[in-house]
Amino acid sequence: MGRPKKVIIITDGDEYAKKTMDYLSQQLGGTCLAYLSDNPTHASEKQVTEAIMAAPEEPVYVLIDDAGAPGPGAGEKILLGLAKNENIQIMGAIAVAAHTKNAEWTRFTLAIDQDGQLTSNGISKEGIPIPEIGRINGDTIYSLDQVDIPVVVAIGDIGKMQGKDDIKKGSPITRKAIEIILERGGYQ
Predict the structure, then answer these.
(1) Nearest to 34 by CA among 53, 17, 52
(2) What does the radius of gyration of the chain's CA atoms come to, in whole angstroms?
(3) What domain of life does the UniProt record list for this protein's source (predicted)?
(4) Domain ranges across the chain
């Protein structure tokens, strides 16, 4: 096999995330596997891996979602499997905040608030900075800390954030997160 396929993980799989990521992949380039995403994720690791390998354009955007399931859910198990695959390079992840009851959290490289400002504070689901520094709460993010991912960008709920990430506005917060991952990952 040639060089590994470059992948960006998105820890959200609802309808807003699917539409936003389909739209942004058309704007920024790459292949979005939104058709395999769900809330929660139902696709198998094998299905996701085969779709990544067949993707015509990189980066490949993989949406995973555990829908609030405690502990490592289906989406996180896919992430752990992809991280071990030598034919796949996870170049970054967008860690999406949630009102999690399970107190699952992860560290991140940087966060973007609902106004597009970079911050070291965690972010709420609405995209508002919280007092916690360097940590974000969510329901599909626990396994991010167990994997070597060069850039993890924390944001609020994709396509929402009190309307500030609406697709009609070009989903500027999610777009900025992807651009940061591409830039820091040296992707052309």
Answers:
(1) 17
(2) 15
(3) Bacteria
(4) 5-184
